[in-house]
Every structure is written in C-alpha cells, then in structure tokens.
C-alpha cells in the first residue's frame, strides 16, 4: 500500500477543517449533521473520520485551530488587531458562529469545557504578554492593572463577535475600536 505524504495529510486535514468551519458556522454544532459535513467538506464520512475520531473531535480541533490563529495575531499585533481583522476581512472569520457554539458548549459540556479552558489559555497568555510588553514600553495606561485591561479587551472581543455573528455590523464599529484602543493607551502629560 503506497504511503501518503505528510503534505497530503496536512492538505486533507486543512480541507476538512475549512469545510467543517463553514458547516458549523451555518448550522451550529447540533445542525451540522454528518451528511451536511460530508457535503460542506466534499469528502465521505470515512475520509473525514479517518482524520478525526468523531464530530466532537472535529469541532474541538476546529476551535483549537482558530484559537491558535487568534493567539498568534494577538501576540504580534494585539487583540484589537484581531478585532480589526474581523471587520476588514469577515470572509476569513466565518467561524464567528462557531465561537458562539464554543460559548454554549463551555456552559453545557464539562468535558469540552476542560479541554477548551486549556486552549483558550493560549489566547489569554498571548494577549497578557503583549499587554505587559506594551505597558513596560510606556504605551499603555499604568493606572489600571494589566489583568483588568485584559478583562476589558476580552469583553469587547466577545461583544464584537456576538454583534458580527448576529449580522448587526455597521461602519461605526471601526470607530468603536479606535475608542477602545485610545482608552487603554497611556495619556500624554
């Protein structure tokens, strides 16, 4: 039997995650049936579940992949840039509905919550490290503890995600992000 290359396996995994992201975003976790996943991905259930144990493992891999992508942007450019990217390129963030599913499953599924808590810690750590670096450089307010700034930015991110996922976007959101950014910057004397 011929050996499948690592590149081929990575490409197939990416194909599965991209299709699953669209399917979960459109139908939610419960509505993303195996048949709908097959249609969205363009592969048979055997091909899909050769790479992922089950639908739950597929969803968790998708959530993990998205959290890692956000953590990378947050570490290099800040969490507000993640939000700006959502507004500028919404087609690249069709996982917003998936993010709402993650929130629901965190509340209702203890096993998922345990795994997700570990993954979301990556985004939190990346954001916190960047905030600490920016604060040390004198760019951020020093009258507010860093963990409070982090909580504030997380709250804004969650609100933005809910707003975009519900289809309520407008041109003012960019100006709102300008206000958020200004509110965490150090005031010049």
Automatic annotation (TrEMBL):
GO terms for molecular function: DNA-binding transcription factor activity; transcription cis-regulatory region binding. Coiled coil: none annotated. Residues 10-70 form the HTH tetR-type domain. It comes from the Bacteria. Keywords: DNA-binding, Repressor, Transcription, Transcription regulation. It holds the Pfam family TetR_N. Transmembrane segments: none annotated. Residues 33-52 bind DNA. PANTHER family: HTH-TYPE TRANSCRIPTIONAL REGULATOR RUTR, HTH-TYPE TRANSCRIPTIONAL REPRESSOR RV1474C. Homodimer. This is TetR family transcriptional regulator.
């Amino acid at each position: 039997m011929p050996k499948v290359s690592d590149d081929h396996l990575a490409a197939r995994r990416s194909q599965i995650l991209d299709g699953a992201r669209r399917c979960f975003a459109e139908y939610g976790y419960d509505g993303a049936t195996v048949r709908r996943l097959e249609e969205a991905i363009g592969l048979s259930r055997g091909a899909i579940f050769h790479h992922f144990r089950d639908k739950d493992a597929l969803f968790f891999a998708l959530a993990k992949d998205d959290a890692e992508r956000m953590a990378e942007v947050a570490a290099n450019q800040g969490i507000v840039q993640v939000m700006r990217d959502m507004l500028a390129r919404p087609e690249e963030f069709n996982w917003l509905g998936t993010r709402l599913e993650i929130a629901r499953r965190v509340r209702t599924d203890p096993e998922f919550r345990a795994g997700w808590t570990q993954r979301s810690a990556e985004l939190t750590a990346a954001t916190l490290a960047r905030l600490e670096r920016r604060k040390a450089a004198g760019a951020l307010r020093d009258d507010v503890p860093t963990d409070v700034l982090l909580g504030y930015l997380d709250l804004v991110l969650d609100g933005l995600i809910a707003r975009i996922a519900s289809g309520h976007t407008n041109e003012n959101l960019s100006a709102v992000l300008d206000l958020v950014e200004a509110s965490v910057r150090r005031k010049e004397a």
